[in-house]
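thread: overnight batch results

M.L. [08:02]
morning all. the overnight job finished for the chain we discussed friday. pasting input first so we're all looking at the same thing
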Amino acid sequence: MASDEGFSDFFYVAPDGLKLHARIYGEGNSGWPVVCLPGLTRNARDFHKLALYLSSKTKSRRKLIAFDYRGRGQSDHDSDIGHYNVGVEAGDVLAGLSALGIEQAAFIGTSRGGLIIHVLGALKPAALKAIVLNDIGPVIEAEGLAHIRSYLDRAPKPKTFTEAVDAQRRVHGADFPALTDADWARMVRAICRQTEAGWVPDFDPALIDTLAGIDFGKPLPDLWPQFDALTAIPLLAIRGANSKLLSTATLKEMQERHPGMQSITAEGQGHAPFLEIGDLPEKIAVFLDREENQVTQK
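M.L. [08:03]
and the structure it wrote out:
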């Protein structure tokens, strides 16, 4: 049963026994369900406003499932940090969908979530009805990943909510001039939790250790073979105009390899764009509706 906030909590067991969590919006809605996959240290709360919009504000009201990966949000932490990788997390997503009885869906992947979609395309391509990649592609710019590791390593320890908002604005403000005061506040509530010690990131601190040892002076491994396997699937790519992780050159090559791909530049946003900002919710809804209608009419 949905809460007053518009979603219900769903818990399930991963293949290795870990207890994992997802949010479900629009239970009982028809049409393609939508699976929302967050970034490296983010969680299901990232998608709250977008999920409310797609599940209750559009003509084609949809069921949405937003996942907390292991070690994030309300999912259990893993004692083996080697399991914090996109392959294991892709398997966790498939286990969650199986527990929900969902065989096919549209997928929205932010950053790490988009990498997981590339893996799902190899593991179970029939599950992917349409894809939205949010500021991620087959090539990750080393500069962007180094920037992520840098601010995670130096994360402040704010005592109050106001301090937490100010800290996020100091780190990301130059890349996100489009955000309002309300957006910054919502961001903090999405990525942090309040404790007796103050506002802390809502993820297993061991996640940061998974970035150790990466040589950011060399190009990172790419996923072009996995991307090429997605070219028959409708795709919308969103890039933050100020992104350091997804380059315009990569986006151009993605378009060349996937001629049917649509793309949007999120002005005033960096990595990764907030999908509830401006007209992005409407554009995502239009994309999903159009692709589903085309399949229905065939």
